[in-house]
Amino acid sequence: MSWLANTRDIHLATVATFGLITIRDNQDRSQQIQAGQLWQKLHLWSTVQGMAMQPLDQAPQRAYREKQLNLPAHFTPAFQELVADPRWLSYKASPPHLVESVVTTK
């Protein structure tokens, strides 16, 4: 079974709702951190409410892989269809980051 079929038929089979946390420039570290902080707050709130939440970030990673390997684009157009506001469509594929490149310690 393919990743997409597994995601649809197994992981998302009982999902009641979806949400998106989007940023205008996925190369902007401040926006990335703010989006992560928002996710953490939502996740903690849902836990207190007795609900489960699970991030599903494979689609942006797949969009990056399509661009990296010069494959036909399937995931970026899907995002464009999902997010109808053109101000949010400046998707720039961003590679996964190593923790060391994002978090600094003193």
Provide tags for this entry.
mainly alpha, globular, single chain, 106 residues
In words, what does this structure look like?
There is one protein chain. The protein is mainly alpha-helical and 106 residues long. It has 5 helices and no strands. 49% of the residues lie in helices and 0% in strands. The longest helix is centred in the middle third of the chain and has 20 residues. The model has no long low-confidence stretch (mean pLDDT 78).
Chain-wise SSE layout:
Blueprint: H1 3-11, H2 29-48, H3 58-68, H4 75-82, H5 99-102
Gist?
This protein is mainly alpha-helical and 106 residues long. It contains five helices and no strands. The chain is 49% helix and 0% strand.
What number is the mean pLDDT? 78
Please identify the structural class as seen in this structure.
mainly alpha
The count of β-strands is 0
Large-scale geometry: globular
Task: Work out the strand percent.
Answer: under 5%
One letter per element, helices H and strands E, the order comes to HHHHH
Largest β-sheet summary: none
Q: With helices defined by DSSP (H or I, 4 residues minimum), what is the helix count?
A: 5
Taking all Cα atoms into account, the compactness measure Rg is 15 Å
The end-to-end span amounts to 46 Å
Low-pLDDT stretches are none
Assign a percent range to the helix content: 40-55%
